[in-house]
């Protein structure tokens, strides 16, 4: 196993409560084909250890990280719309990774890579420290039941780990369609000393143009459902 970065406290690296459930079932034959055919182009492996963004993408650029991209359409659209930036998605479910790579290949993208693994492990073992320009977490599982709230990925230790991979001035952008989770995110982030709220203390942020509307979100808007965006920038000291 690669040596873990000593800049990150053991308390952040160690995690016993998972924020996701690995869904059962295998990939379809088509999904497996897309996964196998495109992995050599887009895949990054946890076992390869610490990466260098300039080496991975062959250039110096602003790098955007996204955890839990689902089936990948939104992330691919962002990569298409911002060719000057590079994007790394992290998703634990292979069918979503297969779909993202298929969409990326169809769009002939060269500024997108993907991990199929637990984001906490990838962040601790693979991502450069203080280097990414943005970290995105859109519509994570809200874990509605109170007894399951501890499984929500946005917790103080997670916020600290995100800060560790962001460069000064980099943004941590969250979005959720579940108001109690938005309030939880706000409570966690407002207590952090390493961030400033881009919208102002205690305020939610209007949806920025660079975050595409998902089909689910569009349907929710038609039904009058709310969506809450939170954007926090990492302080320089």
TrEMBL record:
Positions contributing to S-adenosyl-L-methionine binding: 66, 91, 118, 141
Keyword terms of this UniProt record: Methyltransferase, S-adenosyl-L-methionine, Transferase, tRNA processing
CDD domains reported for this sequence: AdoMet_MTases (cd02440)
Top-level taxonomic group: Bacteria
Record's keyword annotation contains S-adenosyl-L-methionine: yes
Leader peptide range in chain numbering: none
Stretches for region Interaction with RNA: 147-152
GO cellular component: tRNA methyltransferase complex
Positions bound to substrate: 145, 177, 214-217
InterPro entries per UniProt: SAM-dependent_MTases_sf, tRNA_(Gua-N-7)_MeTrfase_Trmb, tRNA_methyltr_TrmB_bact
Top EC group: transferase
Keyword Cell inner membrane among record annotations: no
Similarity comment: Belongs to the class I-like SAM-binding methyltransferase superfamily. TrmB family.
Name the UniProt record assigns to this protein: tRNA (guanine-N(7)-)-methyltransferase
Taxonomic source organism: Marinomonas profundi
């Amino acid at each position: 196993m690669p040596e873990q970065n000593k800049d990150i406290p053991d308390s952040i690296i160690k995690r016993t409560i998972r924020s996701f459930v690995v869904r059962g079932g295998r990939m379809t034959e088509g999904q497996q084909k897309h996964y196998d055919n495109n992995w050599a182009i887009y895949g990054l492996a946890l076992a390869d250890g610490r990466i260098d963004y300039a080496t991975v993408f062959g250039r110096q650029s602003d790098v955007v990280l996204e955890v839990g991209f689902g089936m990948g359409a939104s992330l691919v659209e962002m990569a298409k719309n911002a060719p000057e930036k590079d994007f790394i998605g992290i998703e634990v479910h292979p069918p979503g990774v297969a779909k993202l790579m298929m969409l990326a290949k169809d769009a002939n993208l060269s500024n997108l890579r993907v991990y199929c693994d637990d984001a906490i492990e990838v962040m601790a073992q693979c991502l450069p420290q203080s280097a990414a320009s943005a970290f995105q977490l859109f519509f994570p599982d809200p874990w509605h039941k109170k007894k399951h709230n501890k499984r929500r990925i946005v917790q103080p230790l997670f916020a600290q780990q995100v800060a560790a991979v962001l460069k000064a001035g980099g943004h941590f952008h969250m979005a959720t369609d579940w108001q109690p989770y938005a309030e939880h995110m706000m409570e966690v982030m407002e207590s952090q000393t390493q961030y400033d709220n881009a919208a102002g203390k205690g305020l939610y942020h209007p949806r920025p143009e660079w975050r595409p509307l998902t089909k689910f979100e569009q349907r929710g808007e038609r039904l009058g459902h709310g969506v809450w965006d939170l954007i926090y920038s990492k302080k320089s000291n």
